[in-house]
């Protein structure tokens, strides 16, 4: 007998992608329910060849749910994840609400799957920030080989990371520019079409943005608290997939060829690194794919043991929906949970 899975936030970009991935990966679910806000109650969402009608979160009974994939925002998760967890469902949360809680595992299965065992304290497991997820997938195998001491990362993040309204704004602004109409910015602080915005999330007292702080804090929690990381996060006029220019300093020597070989054999990584025009991956090619793509691996001769590389991944998949489903698969494969109906 399979599991009962609830997808909360099923009408959003990530929620819809969660439903797609559950179907694509033939997740062992006997029943999948779609849950959303009260205003979205009754909205149709696709699940394979089925149509699911969204239930309102406030009116949903989770007592027979085994796994809840939560993608409804931080404030909703802060209120509802403990309630759902108290009913015995395992909540895998995509927001930032629980990432920094010491009683909540922050998991990227290719990187720190063993840490998932701590979920029983609150029945909540956190998904990392989308830009962090793809970064640590690329860093982990290199850290195991030569011990990373410092990372400098500049991100080029697509508008889908800010939700459907942000994607609509890029579309609307682009059309307005071509038709010589006024360009209106609502979702972003400045125009995003044909532009770059060096701000994601709010500014903090030290001048970093919250997005940049998330990358620092989450990399330490997932990978190694001794790693020093500094980030500059930039929103770019791309619909889907985040890109990152990553500079890494190691405690021990490592060559570009060694790094390529290691990453080619690392889980979740695909290396495409030809030193010729087009011999690298762009956001367009990564969209709809599960892998974290790594290109332009080269020596950084300005430090003793340094490498630079280019990392690209679909932020709606590996950065959010896919990672959540992989966490659920990890729980099942390690026999850490059992379907309630079966257990009964």
Q: What order do the helices and strands follow? A: EHEEEEEHEHEHEHHEEHEHEEHH
Overall CATH architecture of the largest domain: 3-Layer(aba) Sandwich
The CATH superfamily of the largest domain turns out to be: NAD(P)-binding Rossmann-like Domain
Query: Would you tell me the overall average pLDDT?
Result: 96
Radius of gyration: 20 Å
CATH topology of the largest domain: Rossmann fold
Strand content: 15-25%
Percent range for helical residues?
Answer: 25-40%
The total count of strands amounts to 14
Largest sheet: 6 strands, parallel
Molecular shape: globular
CATH class of the largest domain: Alpha Beta
How many helical elements? Answer: 10
Estimated structural class: alpha/beta
List unreliable stretches of 5+ residues.
Answer: none
- Distance between the first and last residues' Cα: 11 Å
Strand line-up across the major sheet:
5-2-1-6-7-8
Number of domains: 2
Characterization of the model:
This protein is of the alpha/beta class and 344 residues long. Helix 1 packs across helix 9 (317-333), helix 4 (130-146) packs across helix 6 and helix 4 (130-146) crosses helix 9 (317-333). Helix content is 31%, strand content 24%. It is globular, with a radius of gyration of 20 Å. The mean pLDDT is 96. It has a six-stranded parallel sheet with strand order 5-2-1-6-7-8, with helices on both faces. A six-stranded mixed sheet has the order 10-9-11-14-13-12. The protein has a two-stranded antiparallel ribbon with strand order 3-4.
């Amino acid at each position: 007998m399979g599991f009962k899975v609830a997808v909360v936030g099923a009408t959003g970009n990530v929620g819809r992608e969660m439903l797609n991935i559950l179907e694509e990966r033939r997740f062992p679910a006997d029943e999948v329910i779609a849950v959303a806000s009260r205003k979205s109650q009754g909205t149709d969402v696709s699940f394979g060849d089925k149509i699911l009608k969204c239930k309102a979160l406030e009116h949903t009974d989770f007592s027979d749910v085994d796994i809840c994939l939560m993608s409804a925002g931080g404030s909703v998760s802060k209120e509802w994840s403990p309630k759902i967890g108290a009913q015995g469902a395992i909540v895998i949360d995509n927001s930032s609400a629980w990432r920094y809680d010491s009683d909540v595992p922050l998991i990227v299965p290719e990187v720190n799957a063993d840490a998932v065992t701590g979920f029983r304290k609150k029945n909540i497991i956190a998904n990392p920030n989308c830009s962090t997820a793809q970064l640590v997938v690329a860093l982990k195998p290199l850290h195991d080989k030569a011990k990373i001491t410092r990372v400098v990362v500049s991100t080029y993040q697509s508008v889908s990371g800010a939700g459907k309204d942000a994607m609509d704004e890029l579309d609307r602004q682009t059309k307005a520019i071509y038709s010589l109409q006024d360009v209106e910015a609502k979702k972003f602080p400045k125009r995003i079409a044909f532009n770059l915005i060096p701000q994601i999330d709010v500014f903090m007292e030290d001048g970093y943005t919250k997005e940049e702080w998330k990358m620092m804090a989450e990399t330490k929690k997932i990978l190694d608290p001794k790693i020093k990381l500094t980030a500059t996060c930039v929103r770019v006029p791309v619909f889907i997939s985040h890109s990152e220019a990553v500079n890494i300093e190691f405690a021990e020597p490592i060559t570009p060829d060694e790094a390529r070989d290691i990453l080619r054999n690392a889980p979740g990584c695909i290396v495409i690194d030809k030193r010729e025009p087009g011999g690298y991956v762009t956001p367009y090619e990564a969209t709809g794919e599960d892998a974290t793509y790594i290109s332009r691996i080269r020596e950084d001769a300005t430090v003793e043991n340094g490498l630079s590389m280019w990392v690209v991944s679909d932020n709606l998949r590996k950065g959010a929906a896919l990672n959540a489903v992989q966490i659920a698969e990890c729980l099942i494969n390690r026999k850490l949970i059992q379907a309630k109906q079966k257990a009964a």
